[in-house]
Amino acid sequence: MIRLSFILVVIAYLGTCEQIGRRRAVPVIYLRGSHYDVGYDVGRTFSSVIKDFISTYANLRDFEKEYKTDNGKQAYDKTLANMKKRYPYYLKEMQGVADGAKVPFYQLFLLQMDDIIGTINDNHIPRNDTGGCSSIGINNSEDAVLAHTEDAFSETLNHFYIMSAHIIPTQEDKELGAREERFASLCYAGHMPGYTMGYNANGLVFSINTLSPMILKAGNTPRTFITRALLSAKNFEDAEKILTDEGLGAANGCSVNMIWTDENGQRSLYNVEMAPDLTADKSLLNVKKFENEVTIHTNKYLRLHLKEVDGPIIDSSNARLDAIYKHPKPKNREDLQNILSDTSRQDFQVFQEKEDSEIKTIAAGIFDLGEKTWNIYINKPNSSEPVAILPIMFTNLGK
Ligand SMILES: *[C@@H]1O[C@H](CO)[C@@H](O)[C@H](O)[C@H]1NC(C)=O
Ligand SMILES: *[C@@H]1O[C@H](CO)[C@@H](O)[C@H](O)[C@H]1NC(C)=O
Ligand SMILES: *[C@@H]1O[C@H](CO)[C@@H](O)[C@H](O)[C@H]1NC(C)=O
């Protein structure tokens, strides 16, 4: 008997350390309610995934260490105070996630601060920076498609879900500026929706690429709050206003790929590069509209002139751009699926699946605007079927 229970303990122990590999699962949760309630249901439903992510994500250990320093605490407090003024209802949504998942709020807030807190005491380069994503958008007479690989630290593999939400703000939140929102977005566990890929009911489909300016503005708006707010955008002008964030401005950087469809079915393809503005209380933006062209973006600035980090994020971006440009100019969805599946390079790959790479493609998304579908692939999109196909519902258009 003693021997048997010993063996059972060993088996149970091995069970928890087991490498579960790449799961072909796309959890989707449909939600309706106030910001807090929607957050709470996400937290309650995905508690184990969120807890597991928080306990294994190496960067968070680093953010917690910085948070214990004077500079780190100051940056945290200033950011939180600013977000209480600017986006109090998104803080309530985060509090809902924390309460539902039974995890401390400050850990979720540190995830949102990301490189802002990570570099607060030591802003050296080369830096192993977060992110790695490739986005390609096309709009021509044949197809309108946005294709995106969601690349993240390997801990994020199997630690994401999709929120399909209808937010009905409380009266109190409405008075603070909250809007009714309908959107679907992929979320890394415990993170706000918006900083990955998704769509909203007002005609927007989007994807995000992390960018890493060298100099950040601690205390300003974390990019993830700006991309959370982007889910409420009514049209391109509104999106531009949200990204500009007048009076404060982005603390860190990213690139936003957008295809907007208007009520007449006309489509416009944009890429916006965003960075902290070191001379004004707003974000620095470079907006480019693509007329019957292809937009391609990885994790380095292509148009804004500023000092960015160097390190693997830039090496990987250059390698992926090089691999992408070796393909003929993409004309349709099939071309895009082939490009996203490229693993031709030894160092960095467009579809990053090598066992030992720190950054991995956790999912690929193909937004097909002709079909009005969002196709999510876990394996290479040119040789596997999408694991999930979500409808793109522009329910607010023409209202
Ligand atoms: C950064 O890279 C170095 C060298 O490759 C590695 O030792 C370290 O663990 C990395 N840090 C993080 C947070 O991944
Ligand atoms: C997108 O493609 C359609 C069809 O070719 C075209 O009518 C429209 O002008 C294009 N939009 C842009 C912004 O290129
Ligand atoms: C998928 O695309 C890659 C190029 O990125 C190509 O080498 C490979 O042959 C394609 N696979 C299939 C099954 O079409």
From TrEMBL:
Q: What is this protein called?
A: Peptidase C45 hydrolase domain-containing protein
Which keywords does this Swiss-Prot/TrEMBL entry list? Signal
One Pfam family per UniProt: AAT
Q: Where is the Peptidase C45 hydrolase domain?
A: 139-382
The organism encoding this protein is: Leptosia nina
Has keyword Signal? yes
Q: Point out the signal peptide segment.
A: 1-17
In which domain of life is the source organism classified? Eukaryota
